[in-house]
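// run 5 | inverse folding | seed 20
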């Protein structure tokens, strides 16, 4: 990891206008990504993780969704202000994405060779012969046995783990600066999950690719990431280096997530900790801390106003009224 910032997201807002009201799926998200860094975005379902990353590459369906504000600076250029042709040159090329379910991301009617070669020819300007050779080499790096033969197979002829390896090979085939991985192991069994994560870690380190990893699993974050962003109800409530967040979490939501993970040193029969209540309905959410109904340390101010981020040493920041700016 270097100090070069290749992605700078500032105050990103993405809303969905539906019959019931306005869904503030992403409401002022900010973070930075450095070259070679792995950033983990964690939170419960519906917290805005996937929408944040779809917004980065401007893939929000409109209608009903619309990016309402903010900046996404890639190497100093705002992706949100680029014409659609320029964005298409970046998607899959400089910024690539691995989606959650490889079976629905891969076209079941096309051979793997067709899908991989098309991307390489489009972005790398190689001949089809050279593109096929590059695709075979990427499949080999991804651990696909006999890639010269398997490249002409259809997606249904691969197991779930192998399909995910194909997706990783496709995502890295153009040597992107940034790889966005949206729950890349959620549909796989535990043994295959470990193999896929180790493969991603090895390949991205070898290619110098920065990674944004979307996940529910704090265990995955602890083993893969350099930095963490914890999201709740469309906002980043806490962010910082992985070691700092796990050793001294400050936001009550982050503390609850970490406490809910089973520990090997727990006494037999001990009950698992859990966060009471349910995530909020983000339709027309008022300007308050959305976590206060579930928080054991909520105060009156939490019910009326959302806190600004308070920064701490070591690049940590938390949005919570327990840490007012003048009391750092």
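// decoded
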């Amino acid at each position: 990891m270097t100090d070069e910032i290749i992605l700078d997201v500032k105050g990103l807002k993405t809303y969905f206008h539906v019959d019931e009201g306005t869904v503030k799926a992403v409401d002022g998200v900010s973070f930075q990504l450095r070259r070679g860094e792995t950033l983990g975005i964690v939170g419960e379902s519906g917290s805005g993780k996937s929408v944040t990353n779809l917004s980065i590459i401007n893939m929000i369906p409109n209608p009903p969704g619309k990016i309402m504000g903010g900046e996404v600076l890639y190497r100093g250029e705002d992706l949100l202000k680029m014409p659609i042709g320029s964005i298409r040159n970046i998607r899959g090329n400089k910024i690539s994405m691995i989606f959650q379910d490889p079976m629905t991301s891969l076209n079941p009617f096309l051979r793997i060779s067709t899908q991989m070669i098309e991307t390489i020819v489009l972005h790398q300007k190689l001949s089809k012969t050279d593109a096929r050779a590059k695709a075979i080499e990427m499949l080999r790096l991804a651990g696909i046995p006999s890639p010269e033969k398997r490249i002409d197979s259809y997606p249904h002829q691969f197991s779930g783990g192998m399909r995910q390896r194909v997706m990783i090979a496709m995502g890295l085939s153009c040597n992107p600066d940034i790889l966005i991985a949206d729950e890349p192991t959620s549909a796989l069994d535990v043994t295959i999950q470990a193999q896929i994560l180790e493969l991603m870690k090895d390949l991205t380190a070898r290619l110098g690719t920065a990674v944004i990893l979307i996940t529910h699993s704090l265990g995955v974050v602890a083993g893969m990431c350099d930095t963490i962003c914890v999201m709740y109800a469309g906002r980043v409530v806490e962010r910082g280096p992985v070691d700092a967040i796990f050793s001294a979490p400050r936001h009550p939501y982050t503390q609850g997530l970490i406490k809910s993970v089973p520990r090997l040193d727990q006494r037999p029969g001990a009950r698992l900790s859990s966060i009471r209540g349910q995530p909020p309905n983000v339709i027309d959410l008022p300007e308050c801390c959305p976590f206060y109904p579930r928080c054991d340390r909520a105060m009156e101010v939490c019910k009326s106003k959302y806190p600004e981020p308070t920064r701490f040493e070591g690049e940590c920041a938390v949005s919570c009224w327990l840490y007012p700016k003048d009391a750092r």
